[in-house]
Automatic annotation (TrEMBL):
The keyword Ribonucleoprotein does not apply. GO terms for biological process: nucleosome assembly. PANTHER family: TESTIS-SPECIFIC Y-ENCODED PROTEIN. This is Nucleosome assembly protein 1 like 4. GO terms for cellular component: nucleus. It is found in: Nucleus. Keywords: Nucleus. The keyword Transport does not apply. The gene is NAP1L4. InterPro entries: NAP-like_sf, NAP_family. Residues 1-32, 336-372 are annotated as: Disordered. Belongs to the nucleosome assembly protein (NAP) family.
Length: 372
């Protein structure tokens, strides 16, 4: 029994000694890191060594790494606060959408000829007022039956279709056989999710009576998430679209532009006879927009093409919500497109200027090369 007690005392003393040694090492490391000369020497060594950020961090003492870990934990808390901020922003968007809507309703009335603007509502002073006045004088010199013209023209013809044609992102999706349908598009609305519901927004495409489908409204809903990913919280940059849901289009017989009928010949293996069959296959069309790829709910990843298609879909949804619907008249006239193009050119110009400052010699060589 005495031997066992002595052994336990020895083990206890060893643990205590190891603990004291560890504490002394940490205190010594702290003292070393507070010495300016040591820090300067360490910095010089790091400057002379090509290190990745992660390997650079690994060179620090354990006490410093512990503090960095504490900063990361603070950063995660910041991400969760930021997520709450964006949730409140979504609430504000919903609130102000209700304030915008009466103006958008009046816009719809003017576009579709349901109402005429008053003189006060239509008074607009443009930057090119003198040029417009001259054009007006020339127009007045020509005999025009204004009454007949006013009778024939209702609202603003092809308003939304013209926007589709003007905006590259949308015109790329529109096929020739889509155009007659889009000429019946009367309005596009953005609707936000109700308070207490998961964050989302819906696009409503309102159509007049047409020969193609019986729906008066086609909808597309984008589901959003505003919370950091548990496995990668530092990637959070605000709300992101995580899924979207379309609607069923009730096509009239023979009018579905999203499919096409093809004829295919089949040869019988035994008899050698040939028969012709017809089958329907998918067809390129803007109206595929309402039948999006579904994000798998079982955690399975999409293939590269599907991911690209889904990302493009999300981008288009954002563009409708943030640009097209709020600034429709400017995309109709092309003014918003010119603004977007100028902004992109300015960015490129600044980048080229910076490159010229940093790589002047290379730029001179390029200018002297006739191939450039």
């Amino acid at each position: 029994m005495a031997d066992n007690s002595k052994t336990e005392d020895t083990a206890s003393d060893s643990l205590e000694a190891a603990k004291n040694a560890s504490n002394k090492k940490e205190k010594l490391a702290d003292q070393v890191m507070q010495n300016p000369q040591v820090l300067a020497a360490l910095q010089e060594r790091l400057d002379n060594t090509s290190l990745t950020p992660s390997s650079y961090i690994e060179t620090f003492p354990k006490a410093v790494i512990r503090r960095i870990d504490a900063l990361k934990k603070l950063q995660v808390k910041c991400a969760h606060i930021e997520a709450k901020f964006y949730e409140e922003v979504h609430d504000l968007e919903r609130k102000y959408a209700a304030l915008y809507q009466p103006l958008f309703d009046k816009r719809r009335e003017f576009i579709n000829g349901e109402a005429e603007p008053t003189d006060a509502e239509s008074e607009w002073h443009s930057e090119n007022e003198e040029e417009e006045k001259l054009a007006g004088d020339l127009k007045n010199a020509v005999v025009i039956d204004e009454k007949a013209e006013e009778t024939n023209v209702k609202g603003i013809p092809d308003f939304w279709f013209t926007i589709f044609r003007n905006v590259d992102m949308l015109s790329e999706l529109v096929q020739e056989y889509d155009e007659p349908i889009l000429k019946h598009l009367q309005d596009i609305k953005v609707k936000f999710s109700e308070p207490g519901q998961p964050m989302s927004f819906s696009l409503e495409f309102h159509f007049g009576p047409n020969d193609y489908f019986s729906n008066s409204v086609l909808t597309k809903t984008y589901k959003m998430k505003s919370e950091p990913d548990k496995t990668d919280p530092f990637s959070f940059e605000g709300p992101e679209i995580v899924d979207c849901e379309g609607c069923t289009i009730d096509w009239k017989k023979g009018k579905n532009v999203t499919v096409k009928t093809i004829k295919k010949k089949q040869k019988h293996k035994g008899r050698g006879t040939v028969r012709t069959i017809t089958k329907q296959v998918p067809n390129d069309s803007f109206f595929n927009f309402f039948s999006p790829i579904k994000v798998s709910g079982d955690g399975e990843s999409l293939d590269e093409d599907s991911e690209f298609t889904l990302a493009a879909d999300f981008e288009i949804g954002h563009f409708f919500r943030e640009r097209i619907v709020p600034r429709a008249v400017l995309y109709f006239t092309g003014e918003a497109i010119e603004d977007d193009d100028n902004f992109e050119e300015d960015e490129e110009g600044e980048e080229e200027e910076l490159e010229g400052e940093e790589e002047g010699e290379e730029e001179e060589d390029a200018e002297s090369d006739p191939k450039v």
